[in-house]
Amino acid sequence: MAFKDLRDYLSHMRSRGKLIEVNQEIDVDLEIAELGRIATYSHAPPLLFNNVKGYPGWKVLTNVYYSLDGIYEIFGTDKLESIGENFLSSFGDLPTSMLDKVKSLPSILKMGKYMPKERRPSFEEDQRLNLELLPATKTWPKDAGRYMTFSIVITKDPEKNINNLSIYRVQIINEREALVHWQAFKRGSMSALKYKDIGITKVPVAIVNGVDPIITLTAASPVPPGLDKYLFAGILRDEGVDVTELDNGILVPAHAESVLEGYVDLNDMRLEGPFGDHLGYYTPQDYYPVFKLEKAYVRENPIYHVTSVGKPPLEDAWIGKGVERIFLPFLKMIIPDLVDMNLPEYGLFTSVGIFSIRKRYPGQAKRVMMAIWGTGQLSFLKTVVIVDQDVNVHDLNQVVYAIASTVDPQRDVLIVPNALNDTLDHTVPSPPLGSKMGIDATRKFKEELGREWPEEVKSDPEILKKVTEIWNNIKPRA
Ligand SMILES: Cc1cc2nc3c(=O)[nH]c(=O)nc-3n(C[C@H](O)[C@H](O)[C@H](O)COP(=O)(O)O)c2cc1C
């Protein structure tokens, strides 16, 4: 059963003894982020700060996604793949191509219970509230200022009426202006370009904070652009999101803790950053557009949801792990060769990905690499490793053994020059263009090796059985 809102989630965690309430006074300037990171690195449960210096009436929440356990809490299950599997099985084995299935998703969804539902808002307009009065945090000493780190930036596609909910960091400049860090190729910036094409430079936007954590996770997820994020949140929650429409036409979650209504002015680009990012480095300044606040809404005794990124594994890493599991069934639908994938926390999600395949023909691994680089946000992956299906992608020693025992670098490493990489990647020569590397760590077919692949050593089963009994008698006791 889905949480109605953030408060519902907090009551659940409190009742499970999994909420740390901090009553000591704490500062939004570095202190909350520092304590949050210590908590995440120790897999401690969420922290609710009840006494935030200089922001009476507000509480600040962090560390909701404290580990995979934190993700299981918000979904009420540790079988994250089953969410996608159950959903996909609900429209069965249609006698259509994979592509037709993907294309028909939105229309199937529209009929279902996953649609957003119009509800009375739990928040009210507050004419005194402005951006400086939000308990947004400064997360690293050399950050340009205070940022909204877990707010959801909502736009609406001007052509297709699709709702885009996305986590982008937002740098507060003054009471009514903030910089929206939507990277190129993300939903926000792509729909902004569409507005520009039709001569609109003031893009209607809402910035929402404090909702059911599944909605926040959906906003951070690489949902295919043709699919409405409210619908996808509805699938993940197994229940449509309660929404309400703002005067600027943007639909926002009806039970959000705070909502900022306004527009992003595409004619007003200013330098954003520096900001300590998920790669563990400060990203340099770059130009991003300015959000201009028109109206603010807030609930009584509001809660402000924040996070901090930095060297892994922090909250974004656990979101990434959850997303990896949830999206695997959907990805298998598009790339049927796939068996499993691992986007390791320390691989930064945009840098290293390991994929196992059911290998049936020569050249298949390189074909899959290219499919991965052509699929949504997996296209940002800098290094893709393909292994055979019997390799456990989550056991990095097995992956290293696969690389060591199957790869001839000249034949099996594919370098793609001047490809699109993560704009935040400081290693690439001219962001966002950098090279990519694919490693085919599968056993080779005769056509690939030029001769038969050698036979692998295997024990004689009878001997193995016999000596295992002997071993059990002689092995040192723990
Ligand atoms: C904590 C956190 C901060 C993020 N900050 C940004 C950001 O500043 N800019 C950005 O483009 N993506 C950022 N992301 C990644 C996006 O949320 C992610 O790519 C998501 O799928 C949104 O893409 P979409 O708008 O195309 O759906 C962040 C993710 C997390 C979890």
Can you tag this structure with a few keywords?
478 residues; alpha+beta; single chain; UbiD; Pnp Oxidase, Chain A; 23 strands; globular; binds flavin mononucleotide; 3-octaprenyl-4hydroxybenzoate decarboxylase; 5-stranded mixed β-sheet; 9-stranded antiparallel β-sheet
Query: Would you state the CATH class of the largest domain?
Result: Mainly Beta
Query: What structural category characterises the helix and strand content?
Result: alpha+beta
Pick out the low-confidence regions. none
Mean pLDDT value: 94
How many helix segments?
14
**CATH-assigned homologous superfamily of the largest domain:** Electron Transport, Fmn-binding Protein, Chain A
Fraction of residues in helices? 25-40%
Second-tier CATH architecture of the largest domain: Roll
* Small molecules bound: flavin mononucleotide
What features would you describe in this structure?
Belongs to the UbiD family. This is 3-octaprenyl-4hydroxybenzoate decarboxylase. Residues 318-441 form the 3-octaprenyl-4-hydroxybenzoate carboxy-lyase-like C-terminal domain. By secondary structure, the protein is α+β, with helices and mostly antiparallel strands. It has two domains: 6-305, Roll (Pnp Oxidase, Chain A); 335-449, 3-Layer(aba) Sandwich (UbiD C-terminal domain-like), CATH 3.40.1670.10. It is 30% helix and 24% strand. It has 14 helices and 23 strands. The protein has helices at residues 6-15, 31-41, 68-75, 80-89, 98-110, 187-197, 213-219, 229-237, 315-334, 364-373, 396-406, 409-412, 446-449, 461-474, and strands spanning 20-22, 47-49, 59-62, 117-118, 124-125, 147-148, 152-156, 163-167, 170-172, 177-180, 202-209, 242-245, 251-253, 258-272, 275-276, 282-283, 286-298, 303-305, 338-342, 352-357, 383-388, 413-420, 433-441. Strands 5, 6, 7, 8, 9, 10, 11, 14 and 17 form a nine-stranded antiparallel beta sheet that branches. Strands 19-20-21-23-22 form a five-stranded mixed beta sheet. Strands 1-2-3-18 form a four-stranded mixed beta sheet, with helices on both faces. Helix 4 (80-89) runs parallel beside helix 9 (315-334). It is globular. The two termini are 44 Å apart. The site of flavin mononucleotide has 20 residues, from strand 8, helix 6 and helix 9.
